[in-house]
Amino acid sequence: MRHIVRNEVFCEIRQSPLFKPGRNDLVQFGPVLDISENGMALMYAGFRIRPRRTAKLTLKLPEGDTHVRDVKFRTISDRKVHDLPKALAMRRMGVQFRKLSSNQQGDLRTFLRTQTI
Q1: Whole-model pTM?
Q2: Measured between alpha carbons, how far is 53 from 35 in angstroms, rounded to an integer?
Q3: Which domains does the chain have, with CATH numbers?
Q4: Average pLDDT of 1-30?
Q5: Is the pLDDT of residue 19 over 60?
């Protein structure tokens, strides 16, 4: 079951650059629209992204508090919602979580209980 996020929560997607191991580069950042124990949807402004399999996402509140960290995922959908100036677009991305650790599962359940309607 999908849950609507109660407050502003942002998803940060990072991946290790190909030639600089150990360093994570920000790929995308945007608000979470809805979430479940299996995946979530987020909005972002820009061009369509294709994160590598090594990409991980983290859920954060605007104050910087982190709720769920370094989750592996796969992109299920990525579609344009509307156009923006300078050839950019608002996009909606749907992701499926992959193999959550027991700590991540606990963090996600806590997040769903405290941050969603």
Answers
A1: 0.85
A2: 21
A3: 3-104 (2.40.10)
A4: 80
A5: no
